[in-house]
Specification:
Structural class: alpha/beta
Number of helices: 11
Largest sheet: 7 strands, mixed
Helix content: 40-55%
Number of strands: 10
Length: about 260
């Protein structure tokens, strides 16, 4: 039996042992503002405790999966005082996805950038459209990856390649991301069909055994992930106070190349 729950920025649909979580700010390319972060964190925690759910599909409404953190949120004076709360919310989202006793799929179309890519990397399996673009591009506004970006990239690429990708902030095609093992599959059929094909394979697999393997490995890595999330939180606070960050945001808004000075 299918049921749908719609919040302001997140839509959740339940059917056949599956929860579909859809980011719902299409007018902003699903950039994550404070409301979306809180709603997504709450939804994922609720799903974690639903024993009847085995598979979670995370996707975005409109033209993109997620363009990352909302630039307007970064400019808000209210965010300065609530920064700890926002970063804790991001940590809740990432740890819920990485640790939840469910099999998780992320469907990427359009852009998966910045925090959007960090969140995608927290899932078990990423399927991307051939035309999609992926980027860990925090460096463009003078920030560092958060949402466990350092943890996920280091585990997939190794320290040297992770630093290179973070420092360059290069936009990757789906093919380039696949070759770097950042994603698991490039959809050779429409994305929705590719996701459904994977869902059916998992539904007809011994999911309890698969989930137990996930829990064993993720619990082993939990302390490292939590430590990196805390380090990212403290470092990001310092980066937000830099001249380069302010210049990066201003340049983004003015659609010009930033002039960084290393301060």
């Amino acid at each position: 039996m299918e049921s749908t729950s719609t919040k302001q920025t997140v839509i959740v649909t339940y059917f056949e042992r599956t929860a579909v979580v859809e980011l719902n700010r299409p007018e902003a390319m699903n950039a994550m503002n404070e409301a979306m972060l809180h709603e997504l964190a709450k939804v994922l925690k609720e799903i974690t405790y639903k024993d009847e759910i085995d598979i979670v599909i995370l996707k975005g409404k409109g033209k993109a999966f997620s363009a990352g953190g909302d630039i307007k949120m970064m400019l808000s004076s209210d965010v300065t005082t609530g920064f700890d709360n926002i970063m804790d919310c991001i940590s809740d989202i990432v740890t819920s996805l990485y640790l939840m006793p469910k099999l998780t799929i992320c469907a990427v179309h359009g852009a998966a950038a910045g925090l959007g890519l960090s969140v995608a990397l927290a899932t078990d399996y990423i399927i991307a459209e051939p035309e999609s673009k992926l980027a860990m591009n925090f460096i463009g506004i003078g920030l560092i990856p958060d949402g466990g970006g350092h943890f996920f990239l280091e585990r997939r690429l190794g320290e040297v390649k992770a630093k290179e990708l973070i420092w360059e902030g290069r936009v990757l095609s789906a093919q380039q991301a696949f070759e770097k093992d950042l994603i698991h599959e490039i959809a050779s059929i429409p994305l929705e069909q590719a996701v459904e094909k994977k869902r059916q394979i998992w539904l007809n697999s011994p999911t309890k055994a698969m989930i137990k393997t996930k829990k064993i490995l993720s619990e082993q890595n939990r302390p490292t992930l939590l430590k990196i999330l805390e380090i990212e939180k403290n470092a990001q606070m310092k980066m937000r106070e830099t001249i380069d960050h302010k210049e990066g945001v201003q340049a983004f808004l003015e659609k010009r190349k930033p002039k960084f000075i290393g301060q």
